[in-house]
Amino acid sequence: MGIKLGSSGLAEDLGMAGRDELQIVSFNLGEEYGVPIGQVQEIIRIGNITVVPNAPAYMEGVINLRGRVLPVLNLRRKLSLPANGTTKKSRILVIEIKGKLLGTLVDAVSHVLKVPSNSIEEPPEDILDKETDYITGVCKLPKELVILLDLEKLLARENGHEGGPDLQPDAGVDREN
């Protein structure tokens, strides 16, 4: 059964309150994942990524995005998924979280989709706990499932704990500067 807009926290988590559909950017990390399009500023090809010494394992490095230094996080590593090297299809999703721009490295961007609210269900209770609370829903498409992520919750974690360095005031690129 799909979510009932306005009656659960899921609708608000996905930015769907009062709407019958959600626009998502879907991407591949071995499986399909998606985020609300409002969090994605742009999608870019991988260029030169400069490694940052002593950075967390999920930090791929930094890039120069039109004169701004942008941290790039490897979403596979952040989700503890097996490594899968970069390919010609790999992309960086430039996202905005708490007023900061960050890059997230993904295997490939699949689609920008408009999905009806009744195709989105809450994640199964069996997989939800404090370590996976960043999974906000599962979108049922005709040929696949798309796991919907709350990137703010995911990136706020450092080794499974809230308040990781990713979203501290000096992390990321401040949109105002």
**What is the fold named in CATH at topology level?**
OB fold (Dihydrolipoamide Acetyltransferase, E2P)
Radius of gyration: 16 Å
Number of helices: 3
> Roughly how much helix do the residues carry, as a percent range?
under 10%
Oligomer: single chain
Instruction: Kindly state the number of beta strands.
Output: 12
Query: What percent strand?
Result: 35-45%
Helix/strand order, N-terminal first: HEEEEEHEEEEEEHE
**Main sheet, how many strands, which sense, barrel?**
6 strands, mixed
The first-to-last residue Cα distance is 45 Å
Which structural class fits the helix and strand makeup?
Answer: mainly beta
Q: How are the SSEs placed, and which strands pair?
A:
Layout: H1 9-13, E1 21-28, E2 32-36, E3 40-45, E4 59-65, E5 68-74, H2 75-78, E6 91-97, E7 100-106, E8 108-116, E9 120-121, E10 135-140, E11 145-149, H3 151-155, E12 173-174
Give structural notes.
- The protein is mainly beta and 177 residues long.
- It has one domain: Beta Barrel (OB fold (Dihydrolipoamide Acetyltransferase, E2P)), CATH 2.40.50.
- 8% of the residues lie in helices and 40% in strands.
- The protein is built from three helices and twelve strands, in the order αβββββαββββββαβ.
- The strands form two sheets. Strands 8-1-2-11-10-9 form a six-stranded mixed beta sheet, with no helix packed on it. Strands 3, 4, 5, 6, 7 and 12 form a six-stranded mixed beta sheet that branches.
- A hairpin with a 2-residue loop joins β4 (59-65) and β5.
- It is globular.
- The termini are far apart.
- 29% of the residues are buried.
- Mean pLDDT is 81; it is low at 1-11 and 159-171.
